[in-house]
Amino acid sequence: MVVLPRRARAAGGLTPAPTRRSTRVTRVYLERGSTWTFASALEWPGWCRRARSEQAAVEELLDYQERYELVVGPSFTPGRLEIIGEVTGNATTDFGAPTARGPWDEESDQVDVRRMVGLLESAWHYLDRVVAIAPPALRKGPRGGGRNRDQVVDHVREAERRCGSKVGGRVTPRTPWSDQRAVIVDSLLKEPYEGAWPASYSIRWMAWHVLDHAWEIEDKSD
Fold first, then answer.
1. In sequence order, what are the residues at sequence separation of 6 or more whose Cβ sits closer than 8 angstroms to the Cβ of residue 185?
2. Helices in 134-198 by DSSP H: which ranges?
3. Dist. CA 65–CA 179, nearest whole Å
4. Strand, coil or helix: what is 157?
5. pLDDT averaged over consecutive 10-residue blocks of the chain (222 residues)?
6. Closest listed residue to residue 62, CA positions, set 86, 43, 76, 78
7. Distance in angstroms (rounded) separating the CA atoms of residues 43 and 56
């Protein structure tokens, strides 16, 4: 299944315009649960959205294309999307978080991992910028219940700390956030990699979690 870029489809064309992006392909996989389906871009960690069906999840992913570009900058060249497969989700998927892994998670080499770590760092920096200008009290809503800005930040930081052990590092409680991130980066780039989770999966999960909550803070700041 091939999906045209959002801008090309909006223009009503059957073939993408001959731009820099149209020559590229982004592989996307689906994680299907009984409640939610996630569409995740393999090459672009953090570009991952959910909806109630396969088609709606892909549409949601496309709707976030421009927001994701604000995170990673001009290096973002998604081109058309190609659905390469799907995995079966579980209770965590239905709760609202991607969790299942696929055979593609064993493909990444060190060059891929270094590039993806750079994108994870871009997601971190984006969250930092969002938090710096967000009000302490966020608008209430179904996502995250009634958490305020600092509670969301604490949640993201603690989730990342727990991920440290999954990538072969160890982050003790109350470690400064910059030091915690440094441990995670060093662990992901260590040769040989010693994490229990595949490096590419770990990066995608952390980037998704960071950006999902960065966008939540943005959306609840108005």
1. 117, 120, 121
2. 149-166, 177-189
3. 30
4. helix
5. 53 33 81 98 98 98 98 96 97 97 90 96 98 96 75 97 95 95 97 95 98 97 85
6. 78
7. 21
pTM of the full predicted structure? 0.89
The two tokens of residue 166 are 């999954």
> How many CB atoms neighbour CB 151 within 10 A?
14
| Closest of 153, 122, 125, 124 to residue 216, by C-alpha | 153
Structure tokens at 203: 């990066």
Domains of the chain, by residue range, sit at 2-100, 106-219
Say how far residue 146 (Cα) sits from the centre of its chain.
23
Query: What is the rounded CA–CA span in Å between residue 53 and residue 59?
Result: 10
Q: Are 167 and 188 in contact (CB under 8 A)?
A: yes
Q: Which amino acid is at 128?
A: D
Cα R_g (the chain), whole angstroms: 17
Asked if residues 117 and 62 have their Cβ atoms less than 8 Å apart, the reply is: no
Give the C-alpha separation, 39 to 53, whole Å: 10
The tokens describing 107, both together, are 């493909």
- Both tokens of 215, joined, read 């966008």
CA distance 24 to 18: 11
